[in-house]
Specification:
The chain is mainly alpha-helical and about 130 residues long. It is about 80% helix and about 0% strand.
């Protein structure tokens, strides 16, 4: 008798890849650790929203100043203008740091929770 063997990805690997490649907290949701997953998704999503908002505000302000003729439409002028705006840069930098920390925590914790789930599943499968 030949059994059909379909290899399955371990929960630890699946959860870690989802958290690493998609978004922090997704691996937790797959592992049914909803509390941690939702917290990671919300914090990381909020940080990402801040980064995108600050970036868009800066880009629109630069475009407006270019259209008014206040700064030239070349890279050196745009770079000088961006370097002068430190307030938005600090906020975006902090939000980006929070996003990175959430991502790393999400990866490590998804791996840890997945390993525990893998072990529980293998202990349950053995007679």
């Amino acid at each position: 008798m030949c059994q059909d063997y379909t290899p399955r990805m371990k929960k630890s690997v699946k959860a870690t890849l989802l958290s690493a490649l998609l978004f922090p907290g997704i691996g937790h949701l797959v592992l049914r650790s909803y509390g941690r997953g939702v917290v990671l998704v919300l914090v990381a999503g909020s940080a990402l929203a801040v980064v995108v908002t600050v970036t868009m505000q800066k880009a629109l302000a630069i475009v407006e100043r270019i259209n008014r003729g206040e700064i030239a439409a070349d890279m050196s002028s745009i770079s000088a203008h961006l370097a002068a705006d430190s307030e938005g840069s600090r906020l975006a930098s902090t939000a980006l740091s929070v996003l990175l920390i959430c991502w790393l925590i999400g990866i490590a914790d998804a791996w840890r929770l997945g390993r525990a789930a893998d072990k529980a599943q293998s202990d349950h499968a053995q007679p």
